[in-house]
Every structure is written in structure tokens, then in C-alpha cells.
Amino acid sequence: MRVTYADIAAAHERIKGAARRTPVLTSSSADALIGAELFFKCENLQRMGAFKFRGAYNALSQLGPEERKRGVLAFSSGNHAQAVALAGKLLGIKTLIVMPENAPKVKLDATRGYGAEVVTYGKDEERETVAARLAKERGMVTIPPFNHPHIVAGQGTAAKELLEDAGALDMLVVPCGGAGLLSGCAVATRHLAPQCHIVGVEPAAGDDVTQSFRAGKIVTIAVPDTIADGARTTAPGSVTFPLVQRYVNEMATVTDEELLPAMFWLWERMKIVVEPTGALAFAALVTKKVKAKGRVGVVLSGGNVDLRWAAAQFGKH
Amino acid sequence: MRVTYADIAAAHERIKGAARRTPVLTSSSADALIGAELFFKCENLQRMGAFKFRGAYNALSQLGPEERKRGVLAFSSGNHAQAVALAGKLLGIKTLIVMPENAPKVKLDATRGYGAEVVTYGKDEERETVAARLAKERGMVTIPPFNHPHIVAGQGTAAKELLEDAGALDMLVVPCGGAGLLSGCAVATRHLAPQCHIVGVEPAAGDDVTQSFRAGKIVTIAVPDTIADGARTTAPGSVTFPLVQRYVNEMATVTDEELLPAMFWLWERMKIVVEPTGALAFAALVTKKVKAKGRVGVVLSGGNVDLRWAAAQFGKH
What we know:
The structure is a homodimer. Chain A is of the alpha/beta class.
């Protein structure tokens, strides 16, 4: 279950034409603010608004004919749901997404908009139980949100593109939930830029990977309460964690209070809409939780944010 | 005072390395909404957040040593001010910006942040009078916001890049204030894609170019009241209008009420911050004021919007 650079290069070939090669933006204002030369990999401008499409498309396109016929299932109320739905639509694979019944209507609609069937579950039911029952009943393949080598390899293509487009980097800073993006980017970066200092950033309330990284073993936390909804994971996985241990140099965290102004700075100064999770890496640089040096790659992982929510937050921040 | 494609090609060489080659984004959601294949030229991601930097840099870099020493003056409370200030900073030319004393503090600060001296005038004074007096006193060259061949040629580089990056276009839709951007883009496009249908879009309240286009002569209107603050012009100029007459196929207008939802659609679905003026062209397509056909270039001219204002508007729209 190891993931190597060859897996990422193969994933990159597979997703070509389907995933977007997202732009790498620079900003002299950001450079002045941080005191380093920053290269922003804009996965908020990826299809469906987040890097998740890379991994989902890479995973679905490797299914055999029999599995494709049966279809795939994912449980997520976030970007993974839309990523699997869109990848399925493009590949002609039926998709079933399991979501909590109280998921925002905008997310239910968006996922259905990509052609997925959505099944909701009540607050008295366990998501895993519902998903397992449905997968068994329908004989569908479950696509996990991060803990799978095909998902990790797909996410790693973001760092491959960034290094190809920005050139050598001294440091790479990546948002971290279950570490699918972080571990994939770490594999690609360690191969292409061996000396690069690789940092993962989590919300302070959801520091499962940071705790695990420091303990040297997987630590499980309670479901975290954070505005970084893409990083509400309770533990890294058996695929992602060994890669983090092997290739990542540093883990850092930022609080929601630190995250929000950094996020709006990106909106106001760089003219891009970034979701809270997507702004984690940049927030760590703004707050000096991570000390930037030289040429720094900053992954902005997604831009799926409810503008109504953002408008309300803006009034408060 | 004609502007030719050769002027635009020369301007493009001049601004290389200083101006950004902004990305051309695509969106399957936008294509589905409009029923055409759209290519968004993202000048909101240009330096200082708008296309204005292209023209300002092109104009300032053509000043002689004597003029450079004396410095330049511009009157603007908007993107032109920041464009001239930044171009001056990069070229080592002193800049003086004349702004109304009630201009938003954020704009005063941003302009000063680029190193410009800012002089404000009260509501009892005429902007032109103040500017003319200062220009005379200090011997400075005035850089007009749109009605100058060097400004027009600089703005035309946006369409040149768009056509180079997107390939052949059947239609090009461009926001229009004083028609600096529109006329420059029209010159470039008529040369590179002779059959392309070229459309300018104004706010309904500020339809000076549309009225002039239809009347076949320059029509002057009262200072318009519109949220599209980059298009509050009262008349096209002696340089821009003949180019509009010669090369533009169609003019259209959208109301502020039509503009706002189209602008927020770009924020929410394409994850980019676009200012009201910047969303004019897209709004005309959304509302079918302009009927899209085939491969359509859409210029998003800028992204300088006060988030506090936008958050308040979002609650209302």
C-alpha cells in the first residue's frame, strides 16, 4: 500500500484532460507580508472547487469493468462527495453519496447536480453503518476520502504541477485533514525537490495528524469543532500516516480565529475565494506558526464556501 | 492618434515582466448556464487587481528622461490611481494622485501603499481644476484614465493574450467605462480574429458609449449612479470612440440589479473575486442581453471590491 512517485506520475497521465492544471499565482503583497517568495497552487480553481477531484478521478478510472458496472459509493458531506460524483459522471460510473440529512441544501443540490444519487441518514444512525449496508446491498465499491493509495497518488499531482510550474522550492506548506493531500504532495515533493522542507497545517481543534506525528503513532481524537470543515478528521489513516512520518518535516496548527482573517486577506488582496480549510497553510505563514524561508509553495486546497456564511463571518471578524 | 495592432504588440513587449499574463479560466458550470464555450480572461488577477496596470505601465514607460524626472499626475479614486502609482513605483517615477477627500480610506491607503503622494480636494472644488493647477505648479505630466493611445494600446494586450491562450473566438464581450479597455481589445481582436463579434457592455445608468455608438457621435451624460464604479464615465473620448465605431459590433447594458447576482455567481461558482464593473460582460450573457454563440471570450476586468460592502450587498441580493 506504499505510494511512490511513479504512482503519482501515472495518476497525472490518467487525470490529464479531466482535471484542470490549476494556475500558480504570485502576489507581491503576499511576499511583502510574509517576507518570502510565495507560489500559490490554486486548487480552489480546480473542477468542483477543490483538489479532491484529482484523487477521486484517479481512483475511479482504475476500477475494472465489473466494478464500474456496479457503481461506487462515498460518504461525505463535503468536497469528496462532489469529487466522486463528478468523476463518476465523466467516467460513466453510477455514484451513490451518503450524507447526513441535515447537510446544507446547497451541498445536497450540488452533489445531485453532478448526477449522483444521494441517500441521507438521520442523527440516530451511524454513517459507517448506513454506508456499509448500502455498499453490501448494491454491491458497490466504497471510495474512501483519503486513506487509499489511488486517492493519495491523485492528490500528489497537485505538488508535481506546482514544482513543474514554479521551479525549485525551499518549502512547501499544505493544508491537512486526513493527510491525503499532504502525504501525496510529500511523496511528489521529496522526489522532485529532495531538500524541500515539507509542512502540514491543521486546525488547532482538529490536530489529529499533528498529535500522531509527534507521538510517532496514530492518535485518534474526538470529532473536532472547527470552521475548517474539510479537516474535521479524527485520525490519519494506515496509508497516509506512514507517508507523513517518512516525508513530512513539520506539522503546525492554527486556530479558527487566526484562520478567518488570513482567508479574507486572500479574497481581498488576491481576488480568489478560498474556503477556511483551503487557507490553513497561508494562515500558518501569516501567524508565523510556520517560519517561511526562500521560495515557498503554498497549497490553497479548495474554495467551496457558502457566501451567505462568509458574509456573516466577515461582519464579525 | 490612431492605435494599431503594431502598437499593441509593442506595448506587450514593454509590459512583459512587469504585468502579469493573467490566467484564462474555463468553467463547465458557466458553459452550461450560458449555452456556449466561455473563456474568462481574469484581469481581476492582474497586478493591483485590474487591467488598468497594463495601460498605465505602457504609458509611463514611454515617457522621456525629462518627463520622468518631473513625475506624473493622475486624477482617479479607483483602479487608475493604483495602476499609475504602482507603475510609477516600478519605473522609479514620482506619482501624484488627486482624489476626492471623501474617497474610501482603503483606497487612499492602497494608493499611498504603492508609494504615491495623494492630494485630496473638497466637494466645493472641481477635480479638473485642482489637477490642472497641480500639474502646472509641479510641471507634471497628466496620465489620463483612458483617452490616450498609450493607455489604449496597453489595455489591448489583454485581448491579445486571451486570443493567444484560448485560440480562435467567435465572440468577445468586454466591460466598458470610457472604452479604453474595449477599444484596445477591439483593435487587437479585429487583427487576430477578423470575424470575431465584439461586444461592449456598460451599466444601464452609465450608457454613454452605448448612446454614442447608436448616435454615431460622442454623447455626454450626467455622472452616472451605478455600483459599477469603474464605469462611471460621462462620455467616451476622442481616441477611444473612433476605435469603438470602427471595430465594435454591438453595445449592451445591464442594470445594477442584474449585475449583482452575476457577480456573486462568479465568486461562488468560479471562486474568484470580481468587482461589479468586472462582471459587466458576464452579466450581459447571463441575462441574454448579449446572445452568446460558439467560443466566447469574456473579459473580467477587475477585482477591487470592498468586502464589507460586498457582504452587505450579499445579504440584500
